[in-house]
Amino acid sequence: MSPETARHSRPEVSNEERYRALLHSVSTFVWVADAGGQFSVPQPGWEKYTGHGFDQHGGTGWISDVHPDDRAHVGEVWNQALQSKSWYEVAWRCWHGASQSWRQCITRGVPVTDQAGFVREWIGAVLDIEDRVDFELKRTQNDLARVNRELALNLETMTRLHQLSTRLVQAGELSVLLGEIIATALDLTGADKGNIQLLQNGMLRIIEHRGFDTAFLDYFNNVEPGKAVCGMALEQKGRVIVESVAGSPIFAGTPALDVLLAAGVRAVQSTPLFSLSGRLLGMFSTHYSMPQVPPERDLRILDILARQAADLIERKMAEQTRRQAQETLNLSLKAGRAGTFDWDAQKDRNRWSDQLLELYGIRREEFGESTRDWQAALFPEDRERAIAAMERSLESGEFEVDFRIVRRDNGQVRWMHGAGQVFFEDGKPARMVGINVDITDQKRADEELRRLNRDLEQFAYSVSHDLQEPLRSVQIYSEMLAAAGSEKLEGKALDALNFVRTGAARLEQLLRDLLVYTQASRFETSAEPTDAGECLAAAVQNLAGTISESGAKIDAGALPTVRVHATQLRQVFQNVVGNAIKYGKPGVPPAVRVRAERQNEQWRFAVADNGIGIDPEYHQRIFGLFKRLHTQHEYNGTGIGLALCRRIVEHYHGRIWVESRPGEGSTFYFTLPA
Ligand code: ADP
């Protein structure tokens, strides 16, 4: 590493070293006094030179190291400096411990001010000039003056940078804060103008500037990588300095040259702004009215400012993302008719989101933020239950309950679903965070659906029951008629009688199926584990007649235990296996395979046949009530069987479907809980 780059990359260290060397050298030493001119902390340099410890030089004790004849003068200069808060220089004789003698010295002191301009402390350098000959004295005085100038400059710079950073952590528009960074750069360095660009969609856009007119801003508003100095710095991901705009090949023959010259820019530097994770966020450029390479010190300051700008941009971007997320959440809470609460259990302070207050119809100023405010809003009949649920949650940690509230603004009764999580501290409930969702519409729809279902079931049930009676009569009288007078009836009359008899038989079947269907979801009790093999066996038993008639073969694999009511599973098997036989190919004995396969928490049953198959177009439709693909002449049936199967399977949160092609057989699948 060359000394050049070493200095560039570790400026703070070399500064600190110099400072420390100053502090400890014998012939030049530095002291720090408080705003009132007292030594409030030990001064190692002073102690080393005078041989007097802090017990002697502390406070105003240092005055005893000033030669008695010089004390008045030193005191006068010092007091004046304290009042004017400006730097001072004074020659005096200082006690030198090592030689036990007074030696000629010069002191320069500078005030260090805080942001508000108040003197926080004084820093002084004492130079022993006793041994120096005249010319050396002058040179040393010059050196000292330079050191002090630099010291003062650095102090000013540091104070200014410090002021800036306290300003930057405060709230403010990004562009305003970036403007202050640019202003600080112009104050502390030799730059005349400056701007900060943000990288958006691969282009650099000026977000803030100092000193440019619209012609410049229009021209450089959108810079692509590789163009102009900032574009080059973007491409190189490092600082680019153009010492002379007029002489640089970057601008030669481009309109940018005229724009820059018209703006009075003769030199430019661009420093990339990197996020902490190394992402390039934008560019910090400063512009100079004379051709130049900015001095190392200025570049260091620009580095610091670029760092601050990058941090700021990154922070603002994070804030923006957070805000957007919050807005999205708010929107979805609103859309989902939900609001949140955050309850401090110890202080009984309940903070409600705007949405929650809106759901309860309470204005923020009416809301006392205590549990009582919530309880007061509860619908009287639900109050006890909701409060009990909340009290239970303070032990269990989980809050979940549906309850009704009465809106404060319009007296409307609304259903809420409340859910929350309790956080404990030292075993005591400290905080509960949760949500209320307005589920009134859902409750109403549920209620309506339940009522409709009930009505429908009742209707179907009574229809099928009430129709049994007259149906029986039709059957009985038509049988009697057939038995008593079949030889007397002939032709059309006989046909009519036969129509009546088959019609009545079919109606009877339809009513029986319908009755079973309407009762399919009536089981309120929870199901015990049921042996599916036994259910299938019972179904096959009931189908014995059809099976022997058709010559069907039933191949049942090992079947599991499932949590459903046995009669219902038997019904499903009876319908599906019955269909597999009924819809067989003419002349081909039906072959039915029943299998079950475990899939996580459920069993998937498969009933495969070698029948006529089903066109995929109808794979959904056949599960609808009264949906049939054939006429009564082709295959008899009521179109209720598969609808009943679906009703039963869905009652257990399962699914039923078919895979089939015409002429290739069908496989019916259904899932049931294990
Ligand atoms: P149904 O058998 O009383 O007509 P389902 O609800 O049991 O009523 O069946 C509906 C329709 O689905 C049947 O009419 C038939 O067209 C078709 N289907 C059912 N099972 C099969 C099968 N295994 N093979 C071919 N078609 C079938």
How is this structure best described in words?
The chain has 674 residues and is an alpha+beta fold. The chain is 46% helix and 24% strand. The protein has 20 helices and 22 strands. A 6-stranded antiparallel sheet has the order 7-6-5-10-9-8. A hairpin with a 6-residue loop joins strand 13 (398-406) and strand 14 (413-425). The longest helix is centred in the C-terminal third of the chain and has 46 residues, at 440-485. The structure holds adenosine-5'-diphosphate (ADP).
Radius of gyration (CA) equals 47 Å
The fraction of residues in strands falls at 15-25%
The structure class reads alpha+beta
The largest pleated sheet is described as:
6 strands, antiparallel
Which molecules other than protein and nucleic acid are bound? adenosine-5'-diphosphate
